[in-house]
Amino acid sequence: xxxxxxxxxxxxxxxxxxxxxxxxxxxxxxxxxxxxxxxxxxxxxxxxxxxxxxxxxxxxxxxxxxxxxxxxxxxxxxxxxxxxxxxxxxxxxxxxxxxxxxxxxxxxxxxxxxxxxxxxxxxxxxxxxxxxxxxxxxxxxxxxxxxxxxxxxxxxxxxxxxxxxxxxxxxxxxxxxxxxxxxxxxxxxxxxxxxxxxxxxxxxxxxxxxxxxxxxxxxxxxxxxxxxxxxxxxxxxxxxxxxxxxxxxxxxxxxxxxxxxxxxxxxxxxxxxxxxxxxxxxxxxxxxxxxxxxxxxxxxxxxxxxxxxxxxxxxxxxxxxxxxxxxxxxxxxxxxxxxxxxxxxxxxxxxxxxxxxxxxxxxxxxxxxxxxxxxxxxxxxxxxxxxxxxxxxxxxxxxxxxxxxxxxxxxxxxxxxxxxxxxxxxxxxxxxxxxxxxxxxxxxxxxxxxxxxxxxxxxxxxxxxxxxxxxxxxxxxxxxxxxxxxxxxxxxxxxxxxxxxxxxxxxxxxxxxxxxxxxxxxxxxxxxxxxxxxxxxxxxxxxxxxxxxxxxxxxxxxxxxxxxxxxxxxxxxxxxxxxxxxxxxxxxxxxx
Length: 592
Known about the structure:
Blueprint: H1 8-18, H2 21-25, H3 38-63, E1 66-68, E2 71-73, H4 78-87, H5 106-119, H6 121-140, H7 143-155, E3 158-163, E4 179-183, E5 186-197, E6 206-213, E7 226-231, E8 233-235, E9 241-244, E10 247-252, E11 263-268, E12 274-278, H8 285-321, E13 323-326, E14 332-334, H9 339-371, H10 375-411, H11 422-429, H12 439-452, H13 457-475, H14 483-503, H15 510-544, H16 549-565, H17 569-578
Parallel strand pairs: 3-6
Antiparallel strand pairs: 1-2, 4-5, 5-11, 5-12, 6-7, 7-12, 8-9, 10-11, 13-14
Helix pairs in contact: 1-15, 3-4, 3-5, 5-6, 5-8, 5-9, 6-7, 6-8, 8-9, 8-10, 8-11, 9-10, 9-15, 9-16, 10-11, 10-12, 10-13, 10-15, 12-15, 13-14, 13-15, 14-15, 14-17, 15-16, 15-17
């Protein structure tokens, strides 16, 4: 089995040199953080991951979890690993110190999260959801709910979930049937939810479910959805878990991957009704839930990066060791010497570095939006974060499918054998394009809410920033050739934006038919932009004699490969987009 090694040098270079973590930490309004601590934090996280989480990745996939008489029993070893995780304070890394968190920048927490996700994606989903649920309660919950729940959730003593989907209401949340009715200072809930990740387990003392439901006077559609906090155990007067609430996991799904992450069917109110507490105002639940959903979408995009990194490392190491060719003198050599294997490894390496860079850039926007003192500037950073979120989620998870596929291809027949472990990465990655909204949903969000709604302004602002980077690149004697592909990709994106703004209103099917090509085009553009920024920083350090010259030269070579072999895909996506809806909608339903 392959041991995951955290790419710390790569991550430090990205955070410090490309994204300016030190300057970010000097912003007014942020809790103090010494950026020089970054290497220590990453090294300690990587140690826990390699020693504790990595060994459980394969066994968790093999053993999975099961539903017993007293609820879900997590995979062996997970409870003990989770205890080490929270005892180290990792769950509250970015949470406010007001609730027991450490108040680190979102960007630092994002980098640490990649480590857990690469080491053991099934395990990482539990704290991922807890952190998102805590953020939602901190943003929308009453002072009373925050006092009662957040310290426990920030510490990780209690975990959190999100409950949206129902058997008859998947993406169409307007169709949900779970109901809530008032009773004194709380509400009673009744209904069923499906696909609830880590909906039940025994790793924490309590589980805090965030549940969408309808009140008796709710208007129809999504405008009639409210959000409720529903604990597994009702806190007693001492604040500790007390009486069991009227809820249970009635089944767990048997899945293609992430076997150690229980995906639960949750039933609420089979007896007298599950007790819950309204979060925020009535009928505003979906808008509130988007706080957690947007955070989760960014995290899932990061999972695409993380599983790609894991798959790349395994393929790279196998290619370095696998003897396959024979020289005329009879000596043998490893498959990494074959050009096509090098092509696959370079594609994996370049794609992973590009995905990571764009995902981290989006994470940095969350810090800027929080810390910049000027309201107008904060608004621009928030708009950029909103724009990049569906791209990070959609593009990174789609590209992760290709990277994990190539890992199996590099292994040849051994990639199809479970014992090597590479097949698990392929299986685990498959869910990423589906949960927290499929690729199509991310693309529609990008087209509708993030492009058409503001007339393409946020997109135009982003293009202007890419143009600035591009001009510096084109003016560089050492890197000017990298600008050719990026210029073509930016031109393609501008044409795509103009076409969309012109055609979406006059053709009702246009946006839906071209949204995925549009999103993928922008993803490849964003990756090329970030690798260009990295190459410019690498050249800057080479010119001044700083840093590891071999590493910096590799950054430049990776950028060139990406611009020559991956950026050209933007032209194909543009051609598909410009074709519009004609052939997509041409075949009658009965001919499918």
